[in-house]
Design brief:
264 residues; alpha/beta; Rossmann fold; 2 domains; four-stranded parallel β-sheet; 38% helix; elongated
């Protein structure tokens, strides 16, 4: 999605990676390392920015930094796991990609001179399925007697919930194929579906083991506290490993950048 049309013969392209941000320095470091590992075309700058919580590294800071380097076209890579994230809606609006947000937001439009080329979030990309399987395969002993439960943050908002569900279900199917699991299912934390899903599978296939896979960019509060608390009282295997660190996240960003650059 381009904010404006037209092409400048003297154009210079830069990349703005946007992720949520965290007060946990380790969380931010993992994102920074993944962005630093992206192989960029010569002369094309890249900036890792954050929606919130990382002072001096916010989205507007990234725009200013890239434009100060002469960038006229900014490829935006939203490093979020789902198109169903309400943050994608408000960021798209603030960047001028869409005229109005679907949901109310207090985010003001950014000061931008460059053209914006907005790419898509992670969703069910095959590369992401490979990353997730690499993280959970150590938990699998007898796939034909196992159920994979993929858990994501989710959303209760109309339209956003459906996008979350679609992405999770498609990703679960990829993981089912990769791992040879007997069943693959999904649950969201918002709305809370974990207890109902675990109860359902315990009744349907009581002899099966349940492997829980978290769909989160980096480990933190949700992977370490929220998911285990929602699983209390059930039998399951879980290692809490998120997408990062993985060199394939950098490869995914490279693919997004190349695709957007070829479409300019």
């Amino acid at each position: 999605m381009d904010r404006t049309g037209g092409e400048n013969i003297m154009s210079k392209v830069g990349v703005l990676v946007i992720s949520h941000g965290s007060r946990d320095k380790g969380w931010v470091d993992l994102v920074d390392e993944a962005v630093s590992a992206v192989h960029m075309p010569e002369g094309m700058p890249i900036y890792a920015s954050y929606l919130e919580l990382v002072e001096g590294r916010l989205i507007q800071d990234g725009i200013y930094s890239l434009e100060a380097q002469g960038v006229t076209d900014i490829i935006v890579v939203p490093l979020f796991v789902s198109s169903g994230s309400t943050h994608i809606d408000e960021i798209s609006y603030a960047l001028g990609v869409i005229e109005e947000p679907l949901l109310e937001t207090d985010m003001e439009p950014f000061e931008i001179k460059a053209r914006i080329h907005f790419t898509s979030p992670i969703d069910d990309d095959p590369v992401i399925a490979e990353i997730m399987y690499a993280k959970i395969k150590e938990l699998s002993e007898q796939p034909t007697q196992e159920i994979l439960l993929l858990i994501g943050h989710g959303s209760q908002e109309e339209g956003f919930h459906q996008k979350w569900l679609q992405g999770l279900e498609q990703l679960a199917e990829r993981l089912k194929t990769l791992g040879g699991f007997d069943e693959a299912d999904v649950a969201m934390l918002l709305p809370d579906q974990v207890h109902a899903k675990m109860t359902e599978w315990a009744a349907k296939k009581p002899g099966h083991a349940v492997i829980v896979a978290p769909l989160f960019l980096s480990e933190g509060y949700f992977t370490r506290q929220v998911i285990p608390s929602r699983l209390k009282g059930f039998a399951y295997t879980y290692n809490g490993r998120a997408l990062l660190p993985s060199p394939l996240i950098s490869k995914w960003m490279e693919k997004q950048i190349a695709s957007a650059n070829s479409r300019r």
